[in-house]
Amino acid sequence: MSSGVEPAQACIDAFQELKLKKTSKYIIYSLSKDLTEIIVEKKSPSTDYEEFLESLPEDEPRYAVVDVEYELEGGAGKRSKIAFITWIPGLAKIKQRMVYASSKDALKKSLQGIQVEVQATDLDEAKRENIIEKLKRLR
């Protein structure tokens, strides 16, 4: 079920910059105050994954795109892949949870090049190690 909420063009532009120009390592998206549009809340060039996690509010949903770099097994080098995270913490209000859940596909479809999707309700589920584990299973 779609909520009718669409991503602003700035969401797509920021993603293209992350994917092609590598100017950001993560982007956090939120809904506008009137819940009619998905907007860019924060972009960061920081590779500090803990900083990214600290940027996620404990009581409000968000979407995020993270360029995750990780070591290949056997010392075969590094790889970088893009993860889409739906952050819906347990403390979020029910209306927010519903709108974010029903608006996710509109954003995700507009961001071409996502390699893995993660739904997280707490910081443990959003840990870098968990995302890397999913990325390694892709092959």
TrEMBL record:
Cellular compartment(s): Nucleus matrix
UniProt-listed SMART domains: ADF
InterPro entries named in the record: ADF-H, ADF-H/Gelsolin-like_dom_sf, ADF/Cofilin
GO cellular component: actin cytoskeleton; nuclear matrix
Positions of the ADF-H domain: 2-136
Ranges in a coiled coil: none
One Pfam assignment: Cofilin_ADF
GO MF, one annotated term: actin binding
Alphabetized UniProt keyword annotations: Actin-binding
Top-level taxon of the source organism: Eukaryota
SUPFAM superfamilies in the cross-refs: Actin depolymerizing proteins
A Gene Ontology biological process term: actin filament depolymerization
Classification via PANTHER family: COFILIN-RELATED (PTHR11913)
Family: Belongs to the actin-binding proteins ADF family.
Record protein name field: Cofilin
Organism of origin: Leucocoprinus birnbaumii
